[in-house]
Amino acid sequence: MKKAKWFKDLPKQIPLVLLTIFTLAPLVILFFNSLKSRYNIGQDPVGFPKQILFSNYGKAWERSQFANTMLNSSILVVFTVFCVLTLGGLAAYALARIQPKGSGAVMFYLLVVSALPIWLYLVPLFFLWRTFGLLNSFVGLVIIYTAVNSPFAIFLLRSYLLKVPKEIEESATIDGASRMQIMMRIILPITWTGFLTVGLVVAVAVWGEFAIALTMIQDESKMPITTSFFSFADKFGSDWTLTSAVGIMAIVPILALFLIFQRQFTEGLTQGSVKG
Amino acid sequence: MKTKKEKKLNIRPASAWFLIAPILVVHFVTIAVPSAAGLYFSFTDWSGIGSAQFIGFENYKSFLEDDRYLGALKNNIKWLIFFMTVPFAMSLATAFLLSQVKRGTFFYRLVYFIPYVLPSVIVGTLWSFLLEPDAGITLFLRNVGIPGFDKALLGQESTSLWTIAFVDNWHYWGFLAIIMLIAMQSIPTELYEAARIDGATLRQQFKYVTIPGIRPTLVFMIMMTAIWSFLVFDYVQAMTQGGPAGSSEVLATFIRAIAFEEFSAGRAAAAGMSMTLFTGIILAIFLTMKKRGWEI
After folding, report:
1. What's the pTM value of the predicted model, to 2 decimals?
2. Do residue B27 and residue A169 have CB atoms under 8 angstroms apart?
3. How far is residue A276 from each of residues A99, A157, A195, B54, B224, measured CA to CA in Å?
4. What is the pLDDT of residues B130-151, one digit of tens each?
5. For B270, nearest residue in chain A (alpha carbons)
6. Which residues contact A115 (CB under 8 A, 6 or more apart)?
7. CB contact (8 A) between residue A211 and residue B252
8. Which chain A residue is nearest to residue B175, measuring alpha carbons?
9. CB contact under 8 A, A99 and B16
10. Contacts A119 to B, Cβ<8 Å
């Protein structure tokens, strides 16, 4: 009985398996290539390495100054996520629970702002940041990332906060809790998975952000992994073994995060686009 | 009623603005002010440094005769056509299959989503290796005997743009498929059962049950994808930087190039405004359709 069912599924499974290969093969090839010698890669650019060279990773780590770029990207991710969750979270809380007059206008403003292409304001922003001395600075980049990522975060956080029953807050007030205590001790513990989802989505966005970093950071020692990888591939492009190894190192942290929190990622990214 | 509750909660609603204001200030400085400045500079001959002279619509007019601008716009339209068809066909078919099979759905959902979370530059660079004519997948395909892979796909004017679109789609289609799948799963199974009892084939079920059931999501994603088609930057910059000979240039790479290589900040601002206009037009089309009561 069970076998027959499996069999019936087969015609539908075949295309799905082919698409799995289509999706994973390039990543597997990238991994293989990161372990090959340059000679091996020239002879066989897609297959399994003849001799596994873990030393590529050591070389790639050093030449791309990966420790430094990874630190840069981590700083950007941590501070942006923090700013988006606190500033965006406070705004979302006010918009969901207090709803002062003009909340509608704020939501509309955020909607419009999130629909504006960055290419409308990136060039003037570059010159503005230059006058402020915010080029080549993490502070400057974190401010921009916070602005760009927060509309989506506010929409999503607001929708989570709206689901919290009002009675919970009311009874806490009667018990004498302050606004801040209510937020930290009651609202946050109930909605923390929502905050986690938003934080993860922002983390992925910042880790992979390219256009703004390319414009705002020219100092190599301050580059995040994306622009650093871009210039590394430019310099060492002929050496695929090293470039592939750097690519793998840049992918692994985000891939690990995705595999651990895949449910939150799928929810955050799909809802973020459909609701946003 | 409301005031009573607010009293109970012991806050004045005005204090809510202390919570909203910080993020609004960040927005104002980073997005609103530069956007307004962009609008102003688009009517000037500003180079990025020094003073700007007001020149009216000259920047905008110059685009009408600028082959580089028009070429970039044409490529954005080609991109739009590609992304209105290929990823949607792939993701709808895949999501429908996924909603039918019993085994492996969790695995497939996980795998198809992976490319979407990977950094675009790394994906783009990885693929440009794989597509090198004397190596990578192209060599493999040539050795297997599939014709058309003996040239540099990214190095040829006729194929560069489509090749980048293919790679961007590799990263995008799976995400779209999962969105479609989530929408499909909200369709009540009774509808499929009823269709089956009426003798509907799988194809008819797809056409008359699935598509109408996911229509709001489908239309929304068509709109978003259309808007994104005008903003594309990362993959083009990572793989060809608009080349060869401008054959894969899009508006975003054009704006970047004229702003920071030719120091025509005024023209770049005008090009940015035109991009905003195109995305605005798409948005307006969908909103009017919705207002007219089209079933979307």
Report:
1. 0.90
2. no
3. 19, 11, 16, 37, 10
4. 888 776 677 777 777 777 777 7
5. A120
6. B227, B279, B283
7. yes
8. A270
9. yes
10. 231, 233, 251-252, 255-256, 271-272, 275
Q: Pick A94's closest partner by Cβ from B20, B112, B271.
A: B20
Residue B96 sits in a domain whose CATH number is: 1.10.3720.10
- B34 and B129 together in one domain: no
Rounded to a whole number of angstroms, the distance from the CA of A147 to the nearest CA of chain B is 5
CATH code for the domain defined by A64-275: 1.10.3720.10
| Within-domain flag for B145 | yes
- Judged by a CB distance cut-off of 8 A, whether residue B133 touches chain A is no
Judge contact between A251 and A34, C-beta under 8 A. Answer: no
Q: What is the DSSP letter of B138?
A: H
Across the interface, whether the CB atoms of B137 and A29 are under 8 A apart is answered: yes
Distance from CA of A221 to the nearest CA of B (A): 19
Residue range of the domain that includes B109 = 67-291
Q: What is the pLDDT of residues B234-264, one digit of tens each?
A: 999 999 998 888 899 999 999 999 998 888 9
How close A252 comes to chain B (CA, Å)?
9
Q: Would you say B157 and B247 are in contact if contact means Cβ atoms under 8 Å apart? A: yes
- Give the relative orientation of helices A2-33 and B136-144 as an angle to the nearest 10 degrees: 120
ipTM over 0.95: no
Q: Three-class SS string for chain A?
A: CHHHHHHHHHHHHHHHHHHHHHHHHHHHHHHHHCCCCHHHHHHCCCCCCCCCCCHHHHHHHHHCCHHHHHHHHHHHHHHHHHHHHHHHHHHHHHHHHHCCCCHHHHHHHHHHHHHCCHHHHHHHHHHHHHHHCCCCCHHHHHHHHHHHHHHHHHHHHHHHHHCCCHHHHHHHHHCCCCHHHHHHHHHHHHHHHHHHHHHHHHHHHHHHCCHHHHHHCCCHHHCCHHHHHHHHHHHCCCCHHHHHHHHHHHHHHHHHHHHHCHHHHHHHHHHHHHHC
